[in-house]
Write a structure and sequence with these properties.
It is built from seven helices and four strands. Strands 2-3-1-4 form a four-stranded antiparallel sheet, with helices on one face. The longest helix has 13 residues. It is elongated. The mean pLDDT is 91.
Length: 165
């Protein structure tokens, strides 16, 4: 999808202000409310905006352990799809990344206690094709990229995403 300056300004406002309110976005950007609504709908239709969910703080909810697991799998035809789907389906898994290099998958979970950690690792190791796992407990969260556009300036977004200005 091609985006323009108004689309980027709307998306950046959504990220920076952590709001889903078209009225607030219109007020903050100076873009007319009808234009904001039209643009948001177009961004949804084109898959840029995926949903309208509320961001939940998993630690505050009672899942304070961010658990990162490296999974090494047996190489074979379609292994990344088969093993990846099985990893994705394990309860508590929030992210699964197929990777290049020594590690085949990175899996991230939000868990409430050590018992959940044990269960998760047991389930991973029971998956056909998983050779071994390597686990990491995080100590603290320094950045939670739940709004990825917060990590970019509007100028960088415009430079990287827009054709000739």
């Amino acid at each position: 999808m091609d985006v323009d300056e108004k689309d980027l300004l709307i998306l950046k406002t959504i990220a920076d202000e952590e709001t889903r309110s078209p009225e607030f976005i219109a007020e903050e950007t100076g873009i007319p409310l009808s234009t904001v609504n039209y643009r948001i709908n177009a961004l949804r239709e084109n898959g840029v905006i995926r949903n309208d969910h509320y961001d939940i703080d998993m630690a505050a909810l009672g899942f304070p352990i961010t658990f990162i697991v490296e999974v090494i799998a047996e190489y074979g035809e379609g292994y990344h799809e088969n093993v990846g789907e099985r990893l994705r389906d394990v309860e508590g898994v929030t992210h699964v990344y197929f990777a290049a290099g020594d590690t085949d998958f990175f899996v991230i979970s939000q868990l409430s206690n050590r018992s959940m950690v044990e269960t998760l690792i047991s389930e991973f190791e029971a998956i056909d094709g998983v050779q071994r796992t390597k686990s990491t407990f995080t100590i603290s969260t320094l950045r939670d990229g739940h709004e990825p556009l917060q990590q970019y300036s509007l100028e960088t977004l415009e430079r990287e995403l827009l054709d000739e200005m």
